[in-house]
Structure formats: structure tokens, C-alpha cells
Design a protein that fits this description.
By secondary structure, the protein is an alpha+beta fold. It has a single domain, classed as Nuclear Transport Factor 2, Chain: A (Roll), CATH 3.10.450. Helix content is 21%, strand content 32%. The protein contains three helices and eight strands; from the N terminus they run E-E-E-H-H-H-E-E-E-E-E. The strands form two sheets. Strands 3, 4, 5, 6, 7 and 8 form a six-stranded mixed β-sheet that branches. A hairpin with a 2-residue loop joins strand 7 and strand 8. The two termini are 25 Å apart.
Length: 210
């Protein structure tokens, strides 16, 4: 089983929404995620004690993002990437309660991360290869201070690896290799950290394949 065969129906996860869990199989929309790039972004404030989101050497995350000129948008984008890093940290650590994703998320986004990590643990899988994120965008969310962050994922070179044997299950590139993420990021009082509140993942995202 490869990474991009962990399938589920794309859904917005809010504090009151039911979480749609997934099963191993082929086809369908994928709601995967991944973690740290080759050069994790440094904290924006030296006084913030951020959690470790380091990954094994055989898993590389690439964030091909252009930094927005607006400071709040840039901070929201940075911590959206950190949320993805933290999620993958939990997968490679095999810990559904890993505190790293909790630092960067709440509500539906936290439940999504926990459910994804739990699926990998239950299936005896971890990740290897290279996972790429690109075409990032930011926009205001309604009247408040929250910001919607969107980006694409190309997981055609990211694969599932059996935890016990180390065997890597490779798959061919297909439309199922591409996803589009939308995260509602909210600022935290008295902290430079932005946390993901809600997440929507569109599987088989044709717009991300070009």
C-alpha cells in the first residue's frame, strides 16, 4: 500500500462536524498530509518555544511557497506549513497524540491530524520519499482576523513504508497523487503563532496536476 492509497471523502472538519475516517485501498479522493521540508522555517519570534517537527532522513518535505508581502498572511502561511510538518512528525513518530500538531491546530484541524496519524499507526505504515507543496495563496476570512491558506500537494514521490519490515510500496503517478488543501488559520492572543482551525482537502485535484 502506498501513501496515496489512503483514501477518504474530502470534507471540511469543524468543531462540530463528524470526522470522516478512511481506509486503505485504491482510487478515490485522498486526504493525506506531510511534514518538514529540507529546511524547516525558523520561529518568527525568539521567545516562542516551538515543538520539534523534525523528520527521518528518508522523508523530505518541500514547500515551494512565495512569501506574501503582508506580515499576517506570511505568518499564517508559515504556520500552515508547520501544521503539515507536525502532522507528518506524528506519523513518523507513530504517535496519534503527538503534541506537535496540537501546537499548530485546534478543533477540526486537530481532529483531522489525529485521525490521519491513527490510520497510519493502525495500518502499520509510515512515510518515505519526497512530498511537495506549492501554489500557495492567502485571503482574508470574513470580518475577523482569520486567514484562509490554500496550496497544492504532489505526493507522487511519497510512498508508504511498512514499519516492521521497512518495505516501501511504490505507486505510479496519477491524478490521485494531487490534492488541494484549504486551511482556516487564526491568530493567537499574546502569541505570534497561527493555528489551523478547519481544513478541507480536495482529492484528485486536477488543477494541481499542471
Amino acid at each position: 500500500m502506498a501513501r496515496n492509497t489512503l483514501t477518504t471523502t474530502a470534507a471540511t472538519l469543524t468543531a462540530t462536524a463528524a470526522l470522516l475516517l478512511t481506509a486503505c485501498g485504491s482510487g478515490g479522493d485522498t486526504e493525506g498530509a506531510s511534514g518538514p521540508s529540507s529546511s524547516p522555517s525558523p520561529p518568527r519570534a525568539a521567545d516562542v518555544n516551538r515543538p520539534d517537527v523534525g523528520l527521518p532522513e528518508d522523508l523530505k518535505l518541500v514547500f515551494d511557497f512565495e512569501e506574501p508581502s503582508d506580515a499576517d498572511s506570511a505568518a499564517a502561511l508559515d504556520d500552515a506549513a508547520n501544521y503539515i510538518r507536525a502532522l507528518n512528525h506524528g506519523i513518523t513518530e507513530q504517535d496519534p497524540k503527538d503534541p506537535a500538531y496540537g501546537f499548530y491546530s485546534a478543533a477540526g484541524a486537530a481532529r483531522y491530524a489525529e485521525s490521519q496519524i491513527q490510520e497510519y499507526v493502525d495500518g502499520g505504515w509510515t512515510l518515505t520519499g519526497e512530498d511537495r507543496y506549492y501554489q500557495a495563496g492567502t485571503s482574508p476570512a470574513g470580518e475577523g482576523e482569520s486567514i484562509v491558506v490554500t496550496f497544492c500537494e504532489d505526493q507522487s514521490r511519497a510512498y508508504g513504508k511498512e514499519v516492521t519490515t521497512g518495505k516501501v510500496h511504490r505507486t505510479e503517478e496519477s491524478l490521485a497523487s494531487y490534492q488541494k488543501f484549504s486551511l482556516l488559520m487564526a491568530p493567537q492572543e499574546d502569541s505570534p503563532v497561527w493555528r489551523a482551525q478547519q481544513i478541507t482537502v480536495e482529492g484528485k485535484a486536477a488543477a494541481c496536476r499542471s
